[in-house]
From TrEMBL, chains A, B:
The keyword DNA-binding applies. It holds the Pfam family cNMP_binding. The lineage of its organism: Bacteria, Pseudomonadati, Spirochaetota, Spirochaetia, Spirochaetales. This is Transcriptional regulator, Crp/Fnr family. InterPro entries: cNMP-bd_dom, cNMP-bd_dom_sf, Env_Response_Regulators, HTH_CRP, RmlC-like_jellyroll, WH-like_DNA-bd_sf, WH_DNA-bd_sf.
Length: 226, 226
């Protein structure tokens, strides 16, 4: 990673940057590297589970829990300029769980390696405080996801997902398989297919091979509120 | 709360205590008050949702999520000397959710009011860092609970609960209604009753009105591992 590029990125995304001394800034810039992920590539499991702090520079990552038998529970997403601190969980003494991270699309990120970040936290209380504040922010994200998953009716969750994707991509034509939606929403494919058919019968969406087209956004929206 | 009592309690439970100046210590001691809760009393909802930091001095609190329609998801328990920081969520800028807190038994706690704690965090970075580290610890507790709830078979969860209570109370005679166990484990009473009957048929427990007696601890333990 070029030093200038690193300074711009860190200065813009890390609020404790002005509170670092010159040596600490240099260490961060020379130590940071760029990683690229292909869509669907997973990271943050096994030997790579504590890779360090990631700053997303393009694309998006999704963060989820995985059970021993491979089931998934979606937690939150990280987009451009979001900072991922749970990929440096080994640095945070009170975080003792591991999340799975997958590139949702082609994605690139700057990585501050775990040892470098650990040194920084030990030296600079502002950096350490930032890491824990960011963990608290993710805690809020997870509680939101948990409430969605446990308390919200599935029609509302699916409608919400479709509308979020519509707004994210800017298009009413969504290219998602039912399988992939199921994975994202932590449910079974059959549950997604059945609900999509119901939405189709209500003329909110029309279904085609490998795609979903939103026909009536307002009506779909009415399901979110139920 | 008596000053000497407060000094002993804070000195023993708050790791940042030695890093406070004399004025800050005095403010904490004179501001702290003792609250008592009866078994089943709830706190942490509505107007009392940001009461401040609680240090449990006797009894136990359980912390859970509540849906709009009254369903509960158990998160974790706090026992003597545990510090509750989510009851001061308004002080933590990145925590935007509210948990419910209920006294599991008769319970007393020292309270550092939210405004006093907010002032302390603004003045002393060690106090602030402690609050966020404690939130991170609770984040780990919640993730554990979430994995239990979503990924663990109910026979294992119930066996685990019974054995934990057996070890906590020191007695194989547990005084719990099926209703109360259901609430604690975030499920329906029928699910608990059915599984308890199954455990009885396996000669792990014997059931009586309002009580469960563990007859074969080793066998009950075998359900935890499945």
């Amino acid at each position: 990673m070029l030093a200038d590029e690193a300074i711009t990125l860190f200065g813009g995304t890390l609020p404790f940057w002005p509170q670092l001394d010159r040596q600490q800034k240099e260490t961060l810039c020379t130590g940071a590297r760029t990683v690229r992920f292909t869509a669907g590539q997973t990271l943050g499991r096994g030997e790579r589970e504590c890779i360090g702090v990631l700053i997303v520079t393009a694309g998006a990552l999704r963060v989820y829990l995985t059970s021993d038998d491979g089931r998934e529970v979606p937690l939150y997403r990280l987009a451009k300029n979001d900072v991922c601190v749970l990929s440096a969980a080994c640095v945070l003494e009170h975080i003792d769980f591991t999340v799975s991270i997958e590139a949702e699309s082609e994605c690139s990120a700057a990585v501050i390696g775990a040892p470098a970040f650990a040194r920084l936290c030990a030296e600079n209380v502002h950096a350490e405080l930032y890491a824990y504040k960011l963990a608290a922010e993710r805690f809020s994200d997870v509680m939101w996801a948990m409430q969605q998953l446990l308390f919200t009716r599935f029609d509302a969750r699916l409608a919400n997902f479709l509308l979020e994707e519509r707004s994210r991509t800017g298009s009413p034509e969504l290219r998602f398989t039912h399988e992939l939606i199921a994975k994202r929403l932590g449910t079974a494919r059959e549950v997604v297919s059945r609900m999509l058919k119901y939405f189709e019968s209500e003329r909110c969406v029309s279904l085609s091979r490998g795609g979903i087209s939103i026909c009536d956004e307002a009506k779909l929206h009415s399901f979110c509120k139920r």
